[in-house]
Amino acid sequence: MTMEATARSGSPQPSRNFEPAFATAIETAEAIRQKTISAAELLDHIFRRVERPNPAINAIVWQCRQQAVERARHADGALAEGKVWGSLHGVPVTIKEAFAYRGSPNAWGMRALEHLTSARTAVAVERLEAAGAIVIGKTNVPVSLSDWQSYNPIYGTTNNPWNVARTAGGSTGGGAAAVAAGLGCATIGSDLSGSIRIPAHFCGVYGHKPTLELVGTAGFQPGPWDGSPGLPMDLAVVGPLARSARDLALVLQALAGPNGDEATAWSWRLPAPRRARLEDFRIGYVMDGEFAPVASDVGALYEGVLAELSRAGAKLEPGWPAGIDPREQLATYQYLLFSFFSADVPEERREALRARLKENPADISAAASVEPHGRWLHETRRRLQFRALWQRYFDSHDVFLCPAGFSAAFLHDHSQPLEQRTIDTPEGKRPYLNTALWTCFATLAGLPATVAPVGRTKVDLPAGLQIVAPMWEDGTSIEFAALLADVVGGFHEPPAFPA
């Protein structure tokens, strides 16, 4: 959908009292085009704002002020000549530290890469800039992107804008915190084990995990990127976070589609949402599960969503799709995940893992590191079989709702080993490693999944709901998230960081 079509679909339009701190990307782009505010004026406001909330939350960890100021000046000059670069002309955004960006490190929190910079820019970031966006800085991540908290020895810890004693999530925690605190209109991150969806859930913003391979991942890697291919991605994706659902569609339009040689053979369009009204959606849902029981404070919000959907007249059906066993899906997901992370395991470590597997043939982590490629092929076939079951389900359903996580944002905990951490809930302590289990199903099948804020717990922590849609139909889950805001509310400004 075009920028204008997106605006016509119900998003509020900017006026002369345009408030730049928490305006949506759509409102901001329109305000710049109407010359309600110039790109340079907006950028000055955003950088002055960064000086206030950012020290408290540590979301943006690298800034490119001079470059951004120069680009804003050119954006205003182009507009004066009647030229619009794209749908995000002059809109300030952030990017995850993990993306290559000219002149900056993409260290992934690792000391050895701290001072190494990339001469090239990741494809997804190039797409943002081609649409007219102005990158203002990079946001914080955990070491190797391997945690659901964003802290590392280079940049320190990112705090949640709703409660700085708690995590903003990971691995796109810095990005979610920046969006929530009004530091840029949108951001891009990555998602393998909920790394977009969990921070969105914890920080009360919108996040979208696109269909697998819809957005190019070239240049999303640790250390300087020279344009060479990275590891193939059979689970991980790149996607946006924003303060409105329709901003997700706007940014996704800029990011998605073929790159390089692929563009000579095929093109892409975002399919229209299946439905335009909540009452017309055919909705399946599961709001709890024994593999990761949902804490009662978050569960109460989910029950409230179901009640509102029922009042709106939507068609609701509980239960997993036919043939889907969540534990079977989790086992396949874990094998493929461990296979990805074991790609560069040194041989001496593999020997130890072989011994461990011999002792315990059920050790999935060890098996993924040492078993032959044939095992990976069989597990991949299972992944595709699960996808087929989900796609069949979507013949009779439009979206599937499930938790984004089993708890709201938890207190910072950097203790080691990570496996021994626990999370406090009203029902007692829960295993830390269960944090991402609710996000694994969409990841395994390659399905698009949008997280939408649906309220706050009794201690004023936000929570989000996960909306899964058919493969390639990203617009359906995004539109459902937009419509959901009409009955449960959408993004709210954290009280500690007002406009």
Provide a short characterization of the protein structure.
Helices cover 35% and strands 16% of the residues. The protein has 499 residues and is of the alpha+beta class.
Please name the defining characteristics of this protein.
about 500 residues, Amidase signature (AS) enzymes, about 35% helix, 16 helices, eleven-stranded mixed beta sheet, alpha+beta, disordered N terminus, 17 strands
Explain this structure.
With 499 residues, the protein is α+β, with helices and mostly antiparallel strands. Among the domains are: 18-281 and 477-488, Amidase signature (AS) enzymes, CATH 3.90.1300.10; 326-391, no CATH class. The chain has helices at 3-8, 25-33, 39-50, 54-57, 65-80, 123-130, 173-180, 197-203, 245-255, 296-312, 326-341, 347-359, 364-370, 373-393, 440-445, 474-488; strands at 60-63, 92-96, 134-139, 151-152, 156-157, 159-160, 163-167, 186-191, 206-209, 237-242, 282-285, 315-318, 399-403, 422-425, 428-431, 449-456, 462-468. An 11-stranded mixed β-sheet has the order 1-3-2-8-10-9-16-17-13-11-12, sandwiched between helices. A two-stranded antiparallel sheet has the order 4-5. The protein starts with a helix and ends in an 11-residue tail after the last helix. Residues 1-15 have low confidence and may be disordered.
